[in-house]
Amino acid sequence: MATICRDNRCTGILTAWVTQATFSPPGIMLSLPASDPVFGYLPAGTTFVLNILKAGRSVRRHFSCQQSSPDGFAHLESRLIDNGNPVLTDALAYLECTIQNHMPAGDHQLIYAKVESGQLLAEDGVTAVQHRKSGSQY
Question: SS3 of 127, please?
């Protein structure tokens, strides 16, 4: 799940998918809905956090719609990190990322981001994965 703060307002959204894109520098590629009011278009240089969620937790339900949820954080424990973005304290780990490039892909944006740093928050746990019969909805 990607999280970001802009204009003193924090929001988060589930990614359609995330994959490693590069080794040097460490980079990821993720897909986010182009229609999202915050994540639909983020210019190069924008920072965000990729929270790696634990399986078996109910965190996803707070951010499970295609629109980012401004009140999703009301029910979750989080903290701001040095880049000004929120980390969910119930996450398995997180990555601090800076957008390098993006491109439209149908109804989504593909974002390539450099991983600046990260932290393991829990040594036990399995990464949450949602298997869908269709990718047409979140």
Answer: strand
